[in-house]
Amino acid sequence: MARTWLSIRVELVSGHGADLWPRPGRVFAAARSHSFAQFATAIDLAFGRWDLAHLHLFTLSDGARVSPLDWWDGEAPDGTVDGHATKLSRLQAGEQFAYVFDMGDDWAHLCTVAEKRIDPLDELGEAPDRPVPYWGWGSLPDQYARRWDGDDGGSPMPKRPARGLSDLPPILPWWGEHRRG
After folding, report:
1. How far apart are CA 86 and CA 46, in angstroms?
2. Does pTM surpass 0.85?
């Protein structure tokens, strides 16, 4: 397969009221025939989002906006084009654009199209049917800024077990009250 796919770097800039530094990121392989809606799903999954029932919006370098129009109930920003129908072939080498997930918490990302196209067989070993990450870095914040199960934003953090991993069942040799091995 030839070098026909895009390589798109996506950095998480801010969200939930905080700017992130260093910025966590992922690099995606995407065919020019993939839609912006498919790319949005790939970004959301790669950045650890589990509640996907939120609006999202791409803002391209020319000011064009792309989002699934059926999600907006007729209230999409003026001039927005449908993310299901709009293909990544619209992007140019070196172009930078923004992606925002969840219009309340505003998880904002800077996306940069690489100057050179890639061969998915070289990078991934296959040509997947959707955009996929193939490189990444950084700690990903929880979508709702929760630090543990049951975090309500005001309660103190649970205490760590006194003896390391003693609270775990002894499935692995280094887990549990009575370590094996």
Report:
1. 21
2. yes
